[in-house]
Amino acid sequence: MSKLKHSILALVSAAAICGATSASAASFELWNGSAWVNSGTVTFSGPTTASYLGNSLPCTATFTVNLSGGAATVTGASFTGSSACNGIVASNFAWGMTPGAAGGYTGANPPFTGAPTLTGALSSVSISGIRIFLPAPLNVTCPSTTGSGTINGVLESSGSGSNRFVFKGALGPCSVQTQNGGALSPSTPVRVI
User: Comparing C-alpha atoms, which of 184, 150, 139 is closest to residue 49?
Assistant: First the structure.
């Protein structure tokens, strides 16, 4: 009976630890004008460059992000600034947007060469499921016509600053990043809790 009792206690303890871990997972909130809420829509917009085999395409990127219960997905992306930028086609939605721990980013600042120095509480953020087509003269789908990729970035996540988001990553033969000195900015303050 004692062994059974210890086994049950061990299982209960493990379940409690797992429950506490999932309950403390980081999530997003946005400011709706009067309060912080964990559901709604926000757009991030700013200068972004896509590159393929040494050819760069600087554009303004706009990502539409939907929050539901603190979980975020990118539901749309558009690119402007030139006819080539207008021809970029993003697909494979919804892209997952996952935050690291609130204030948990302790890496280099600026996060990479060319990024601005960020302020306030910083959080790492990854966006997965990305697939984009770059038109002529590049004519390439990144990372491939059937695959998808992930980019990693850093967000000023305190909710009290400009909430800039910078990222840099490879998508197969391509690379994408916020332009040197630039960042994406949200339409309303966003934070990671």
Answer: 184
Predicted confidence (pLDDT) per residue in 46-99, tens digit: 999 999 988 899 999 999 999 999 999 999 999 999 999 999 999 999 999 999
Query: Considering only CA atoms, which of 20, 45, 184, 24 is closest in space to residue 104?
Result: 24
DSSP classification of residue 10 = H
Q: What is the dihedral of CA 46, 51, 54, 59, to 10 degrees?
A: -40
Per-residue pLDDT at 160: 60
Tell me the H-state helices in 92-189: none
Tokens of 115: 């990024």
The pTM for the full model equals 0.85
Which residues on neighbouring strands pair with residue 160, listed in sequence order?
Answer: none
Nearest to 65 by CA among 34, 37, 36, 30: 30
Residues with Cβ within 8 Å of 105's Cβ and at least 6 positions away in sequence, in order, are: 111, 122, 123, 124, 154
Question: Using the 8-state DSSP alphabet, how is residue 103 labeled?
Answer: T
SS3 128: strand
